[in-house]
Amino acid sequence: MNVETYSVPVPIESEAAVIIDVLRATTMACALFDAGITELVMVSTIEEALKWKKKGYIAAGEREAVKIKGFDLGNSPTELLDNDVRSKIKDKPVVMTTSNGTRAVNVVKAQLKILASLNNLTAVTEFLKIKHFKRIALVCAGTHSEMSLEDFYCAGLIVASLTEGEEDVLLDDASFIAKILTEIIQPFDLKRSTHAVKLIEKGFEKDVDHALRIDISSVVPVSTSKNVFHALYKV
Fold first, then answer.
1. What is the CATH code of the structural domain delimited by 2-229?
2. Pick from 106, 108, 105, 99: nearest CA to 143
Protein backbone atom coordinates (compact mmCIF):
# COMPACT_ATOMS: atom_id res chain seq x y z
CA MET A 1 0.00 0.00 0.00
CA ASN A 2 1.27 3.46 -0.96
CA VAL A 3 0.04 6.33 1.21
CA GLU A 4 0.32 9.96 0.12
CA THR A 5 -0.69 12.97 2.17
CA TYR A 6 -1.62 16.39 0.80
CA SER A 7 -1.81 19.35 3.16
CA VAL A 8 -4.19 21.18 0.79
CA PRO A 9 -6.43 19.94 -2.02
CA VAL A 10 -4.76 19.26 -5.38
CA PRO A 11 -6.26 17.75 -8.55
CA ILE A 12 -4.76 14.31 -8.04
CA GLU A 13 -6.07 10.97 -9.26
CA SER A 14 -6.00 8.02 -6.90
CA GLU A 15 -7.60 4.65 -6.33
CA ALA A 16 -8.95 5.88 -3.00
CA ALA A 17 -9.01 9.41 -1.61
CA VAL A 18 -9.71 10.24 2.01
CA ILE A 19 -10.87 13.83 2.38
CA ILE A 20 -10.34 15.41 5.79
CA ASP A 21 -11.96 18.64 7.02
CA VAL A 22 -12.09 18.35 10.80
CA LEU A 23 -13.39 21.92 11.18
CA ARG A 24 -16.01 21.22 10.07
CA ALA A 25 -17.34 19.63 6.85
CA THR A 26 -16.35 16.00 7.29
CA THR A 27 -17.26 16.16 10.98
CA MET A 28 -20.64 17.56 9.92
CA ALA A 29 -21.03 14.74 7.39
CA CYS A 30 -20.63 12.14 10.12
CA ALA A 31 -23.13 13.96 12.32
CA LEU A 32 -25.64 14.12 9.46
CA PHE A 33 -25.47 10.39 8.80
CA ASP A 34 -25.63 9.64 12.50
CA ALA A 35 -28.79 11.75 12.57
CA GLY A 36 -30.34 9.49 9.94
CA ILE A 37 -30.05 11.21 6.57
CA THR A 38 -30.22 8.99 3.48
CA GLU A 39 -27.50 10.54 1.32
CA LEU A 40 -25.19 13.53 1.13
CA VAL A 41 -24.33 15.44 -2.03
CA MET A 42 -21.27 17.69 -1.70
CA VAL A 43 -21.08 20.60 -4.16
CA SER A 44 -18.70 23.52 -4.60
CA THR A 45 -21.10 26.43 -5.06
CA ILE A 46 -24.18 27.89 -3.46
CA GLU A 47 -25.90 27.91 -6.87
CA GLU A 48 -25.44 24.15 -7.25
CA ALA A 49 -26.76 23.56 -3.74
CA LEU A 50 -29.88 25.61 -4.42
CA LYS A 51 -30.63 23.49 -7.49
CA TRP A 52 -30.54 20.38 -5.30
CA LYS A 53 -32.68 22.13 -2.69
CA LYS A 54 -35.36 22.66 -5.35
CA LYS A 55 -35.36 18.88 -5.84
CA GLY A 56 -36.32 18.41 -2.20
CA TYR A 57 -32.90 18.13 -0.60
CA ILE A 58 -32.14 19.67 2.80
CA ALA A 59 -29.54 22.39 2.20
CA ALA A 60 -26.62 22.70 4.61
CA GLY A 61 -23.57 24.92 4.38
CA GLU A 62 -21.59 27.99 5.26
CA ARG A 63 -19.48 30.79 3.93
CA GLU A 64 -16.92 32.32 6.30
CA ALA A 65 -18.29 29.91 8.94
CA VAL A 66 -21.77 31.47 8.86
CA LYS A 67 -24.93 29.67 7.72
CA ILE A 68 -25.89 30.59 4.15
CA LYS A 69 -29.04 32.67 3.76
CA GLY A 70 -31.98 30.52 2.72
CA PHE A 71 -30.34 27.25 3.78
CA ASP A 72 -31.92 24.84 6.24
CA LEU A 73 -28.73 24.13 8.19
CA GLY A 74 -25.33 25.65 8.71
CA ASN A 75 -22.14 23.62 9.06
CA SER A 76 -22.53 23.00 12.78
CA PRO A 77 -22.42 19.37 13.96
CA THR A 78 -23.69 20.36 17.41
CA GLU A 79 -26.80 21.83 15.79
CA LEU A 80 -27.73 18.24 14.97
CA LEU A 81 -27.79 17.28 18.65
CA ASP A 82 -31.17 19.00 18.89
CA ASN A 83 -33.96 16.43 18.65
CA ASP A 84 -36.25 18.75 16.68
CA VAL A 85 -33.54 19.30 14.06
CA ARG A 86 -32.79 15.59 13.87
CA SER A 87 -36.47 14.74 13.34
CA LYS A 88 -36.66 17.19 10.41
CA ILE A 89 -33.71 15.68 8.56
CA LYS A 90 -34.15 11.99 9.39
CA ASP A 91 -34.67 9.87 6.25
CA LYS A 92 -34.06 12.92 4.05
CA PRO A 93 -31.29 13.62 1.50
CA VAL A 94 -28.94 16.54 2.13
CA VAL A 95 -26.86 18.76 -0.12
CA MET A 96 -23.87 20.56 1.39
CA THR A 97 -21.54 23.33 0.30
CA THR A 98 -18.77 24.77 2.47
CA SER A 99 -15.79 27.07 2.12
CA ASN A 100 -13.17 24.30 2.13
CA GLY A 101 -14.39 20.73 2.62
CA THR A 102 -16.77 20.38 -0.30
CA ARG A 103 -14.28 22.13 -2.54
CA ALA A 104 -11.69 19.49 -1.65
CA VAL A 105 -14.17 16.73 -2.46
CA ASN A 106 -14.77 18.21 -5.90
CA VAL A 107 -11.10 18.88 -6.70
CA VAL A 108 -9.90 15.33 -6.07
CA LYS A 109 -10.47 12.53 -8.57
CA ALA A 110 -10.67 8.99 -7.24
CA GLN A 111 -12.47 5.72 -7.81
CA LEU A 112 -13.62 5.91 -4.21
CA LYS A 113 -13.87 8.93 -1.92
CA ILE A 114 -14.11 8.62 1.85
CA LEU A 115 -14.84 11.37 4.37
CA ALA A 116 -12.71 11.25 7.51
CA SER A 117 -12.56 13.23 10.72
CA LEU A 118 -11.39 12.66 14.25
CA ASN A 119 -14.95 11.64 15.11
CA ASN A 120 -14.88 8.59 12.82
CA LEU A 121 -11.13 7.94 12.82
CA THR A 122 -11.11 4.24 13.70
CA ALA A 123 -14.08 3.40 11.49
CA VAL A 124 -12.29 4.92 8.50
CA THR A 125 -8.92 3.29 9.17
CA GLU A 126 -10.53 -0.12 9.64
CA PHE A 127 -12.39 0.35 6.36
CA LEU A 128 -9.13 1.22 4.58
CA LYS A 129 -7.39 -1.84 6.01
CA ILE A 130 -10.18 -4.17 4.96
CA LYS A 131 -10.19 -2.87 1.39
CA HIS A 132 -6.43 -3.37 0.82
CA PHE A 133 -6.08 -0.43 -1.55
CA LYS A 134 -2.82 -0.21 -3.50
CA ARG A 135 -2.80 3.59 -3.30
CA ILE A 136 -4.45 5.92 -0.82
CA ALA A 137 -4.38 9.70 -0.95
CA LEU A 138 -5.10 11.55 2.30
CA VAL A 139 -6.30 14.99 1.24
CA CYS A 140 -6.57 17.74 3.84
CA ALA A 141 -9.13 20.42 3.03
CA GLY A 142 -7.12 23.15 4.72
CA THR A 143 -8.42 26.69 5.08
CA HIS A 144 -8.53 28.94 2.04
CA SER A 145 -5.76 26.96 0.32
CA GLU A 146 -3.49 26.97 3.37
CA MET A 147 -2.67 24.01 5.60
CA SER A 148 -4.82 23.42 8.68
CA LEU A 149 -3.15 21.82 11.68
CA GLU A 150 -6.21 19.79 12.68
CA ASP A 151 -6.55 18.20 9.23
CA PHE A 152 -2.87 17.32 8.99
CA TYR A 153 -2.98 15.86 12.51
CA CYS A 154 -5.96 13.69 11.60
CA ALA A 155 -4.11 12.49 8.50
CA GLY A 156 -1.17 11.60 10.73
CA LEU A 157 -3.37 9.49 12.98
CA ILE A 158 -4.67 7.61 9.95
CA VAL A 159 -1.09 7.00 8.76
CA ALA A 160 -0.07 5.79 12.23
CA SER A 161 -2.94 3.32 12.30
CA LEU A 162 -2.28 2.03 8.78
CA THR A 163 1.41 1.46 9.48
CA GLU A 164 1.07 -0.14 12.92
CA GLY A 165 2.49 -3.65 12.67
CA GLU A 166 2.69 -3.41 8.88
CA GLU A 167 5.87 -3.53 6.81
CA ASP A 168 4.42 -3.18 3.31
CA VAL A 169 3.03 0.37 3.72
CA LEU A 170 5.07 2.92 1.79
CA LEU A 171 4.79 6.54 2.92
CA ASP A 172 5.64 9.72 1.09
CA ASP A 173 7.47 12.43 3.04
CA ALA A 174 4.30 14.32 3.95
CA SER A 175 2.74 11.17 5.40
CA PHE A 176 5.88 10.53 7.43
CA ILE A 177 5.85 14.09 8.78
CA ALA A 178 2.13 13.86 9.61
CA LYS A 179 2.76 10.68 11.56
CA ILE A 180 5.58 12.34 13.54
CA LEU A 181 3.25 15.26 14.33
CA THR A 182 0.91 12.92 16.20
CA GLU A 183 3.77 11.97 18.51
CA ILE A 184 4.41 15.61 19.41
CA ILE A 185 0.99 17.15 20.05
CA GLN A 186 -2.36 16.05 21.49
CA PRO A 187 -5.92 16.73 20.29
CA PHE A 188 -6.43 19.53 22.85
CA ASP A 189 -3.52 21.41 21.23
CA LEU A 190 -5.63 21.73 18.09
CA LYS A 191 -7.81 24.36 19.77
CA ARG A 192 -4.90 26.72 19.19
CA SER A 193 -4.89 26.15 15.42
CA THR A 194 -5.61 29.17 13.25
CA HIS A 195 -8.99 27.90 12.08
CA ALA A 196 -10.07 26.74 15.54
CA VAL A 197 -9.28 30.14 17.04
CA LYS A 198 -11.32 31.90 14.32
CA LEU A 199 -14.29 29.59 14.85
CA ILE A 200 -14.16 30.10 18.61
CA GLU A 201 -14.08 33.87 18.09
CA LYS A 202 -17.25 33.55 15.99
CA GLY A 203 -19.04 31.61 18.73
CA PHE A 204 -18.48 28.03 17.54
CA GLU A 205 -16.40 26.70 20.43
CA LYS A 206 -18.87 23.86 21.03
CA ASP A 207 -18.36 22.76 17.42
CA VAL A 208 -14.59 22.83 17.88
CA ASP A 209 -14.79 20.75 21.05
CA HIS A 210 -17.11 18.28 19.32
CA ALA A 211 -14.87 18.01 16.25
CA LEU A 212 -11.81 17.23 18.37
CA ARG A 213 -13.42 14.18 19.99
CA ILE A 214 -12.01 10.90 18.69
CA ASP A 215 -14.16 7.89 17.74
CA ILE A 216 -17.61 9.09 18.71
CA SER A 217 -18.99 7.97 15.34
CA SER A 218 -18.80 4.66 13.50
CA VAL A 219 -20.04 5.99 10.18
CA VAL A 220 -17.91 5.90 7.02
CA PRO A 221 -19.30 8.21 4.32
CA VAL A 222 -18.31 6.79 0.92
CA SER A 223 -18.84 8.03 -2.63
CA THR A 224 -18.21 6.10 -5.83
CA SER A 225 -19.43 8.71 -8.31
CA LYS A 226 -20.60 12.30 -8.67
CA ASN A 227 -19.71 13.13 -5.05
CA VAL A 228 -22.88 11.55 -3.71
CA PHE A 229 -22.08 9.94 -0.37
CA HIS A 230 -23.80 7.11 1.46
CA ALA A 231 -23.00 5.66 4.85
CA LEU A 232 -21.28 2.44 5.70
CA TYR A 233 -21.13 1.49 9.35
CA LYS A 234 -18.49 -0.35 11.29
CA VAL A 235 -19.77 -3.77 12.29
1. 3.90.1560.10
2. 99
